[in-house]
Amino acid sequence: MKCLYSLLFLLFIQFSVSLHAQSNLPDDIAVYGNDPLLHNGKLYTYFQPVGTEGNPFLNDNKLVRGSVMLRGVHYDSLSMKYDIFNQQLVLLYKTINGQYTQISLSMAWMDSFELGTSHFELMELQDTIKQIVQTIGKGKLRVAYKWRKEIALENKIGTSYFVFSVPKRTAYLQDKQGIRKYKNNKTFVRLFDNDIQPMVKKRLRQMHLSVKKADDQQMAELLSYCNTLKP
Question: What global pTM score does this model have?
């Protein structure tokens, strides 16, 4: 029985990957609203298995008020949610017929977007492929988070079902040397020049801060201090 469920899980993952690949095909691109720039994308049609616990979104399937920059044009007061499992920004809008529709916005045209107080943009990470990342900080130093969720088959006595993980992030520091990954306080400090590492370490102790668990405001405060240090 476990082998059967494992096979079904693999088939589900392959199906999801297939849908994601198909979403990049030109035939899937269409304009669904009055604005050919904003409403250029594809209908959001991701379906998760019946009985799945959790969801693929960063904000627990909640629509968040935000804005998006497409080819230099800014659109605000939008209702959106970020599918981090499939890496799609989903827009809810009302059609001329009064119906609500969800579309996945075109990644090819996207510059950046805001969800609540969080800022996201497309950035080339270490593999040189542009991906959606959350950025924190202003100035010569910024932090970038690459968000993801995973899905696994949960086996319990008498039942089996799929479960989405909590949101997980991979953290990067962006500076004059480029963008480099870190995991904890130790690896974070090592990304700085030798002469200022002691000051960064001291600041972390003063703030009683773990960069692995820090919230956005704490990281913004830390980066603001680090930006005052001489390179």
Answer: 0.82
